[in-house]
Amino acid sequence: MEFVLGLESPFSLDYTLESGQVFRWENRGEWWYGVLPMGVIKVKQEADSIRCVSSSESMDGAFVRSYFRLDEQLEPILASIMKDSTMASAVQRFYGLRLIRQEFWECLASFLLATNANIPRIKKMVSSVCSTFGDPTEFEGLKYFRFPPPERLAEAQVAELRECGLGYRAPFLRRVAESVSSGAVDGGEIELKNYEQAHSALLKVFSGEKLLLGVGPKVADCVLLYSCGKDDAFPIDVWVARELADSYPRLVDPSVLKKLSREHGGKLTYREYADLSRAARGYFGPYSGYAQQYLYMYGRVRDQ
DNA sequence: TAGCAGGAAAATC
DNA sequence: GATTTTCCTGCT
Description:
single chain; alpha+beta; 3 domains; 5-stranded antiparallel β-sheet; two-stranded antiparallel sheet; DNA-binding
């Protein structure tokens, strides 16, 4: 079905889809093509609206509005995070960038694969898992593969997953698929908790039991922010860590600051990550996740 | 708690 | 063409 959505609040389709939140969108000409759990959709930004063509009736205006969170007013959110000149520049540079509301399982699995990889590589791994295990679907005469359900990957051979180029991530993905498939990990339950509770629930670090192998604090924060509605989550990857060290040194512990300088390129320990995340969340407030997303994009263009 | 391996592709030199 | 980096986590 085809439809047009009017935009009442700032939105940049390009910045949003290029900001590393999602891995199943592809830019072809003036359209963005996305493979989502319900089917395939293409979207194009126009003057004061976005035009959409989707493969199923269930992907309608209400769905797209909810997916891109277009009912929420962006200005007050941005106003709340612009506490200094760095964030003001980042917001100005990527004005209209929004957080997307993703499906829990696909988000968790995708960011599990994201360790030690760059975005093109992550897209390749996800795409390979989909074409190997996902259900085919057709759109405009072309074949696409949906992201496989957790049950499907729970019964996959680790060797088959490895063939998708996942390397050491293969056994992790299978374990996580089992956990989600069995209901041991439930996105809906996590959504009801506050950030702190949700984060530790996802990590299952209590009693030293690691249910979700391959999911550390950073991946957990990505999942909470992108799929569980925790706008105050603040994932810290290498880019955000550098940007914090460069532009927000007072939020960073001196010893960690030294560690993060370009020469050392050190990695954060679990405790250092927790401390830095808490400091950033305290500073930026309830919409820290938006601050993180703008900072990520800003850090990447500044480095080039 | 610090150090290291893990795997492969992209970015950089 | 070789080296470094890449939206990190688990194990020792």
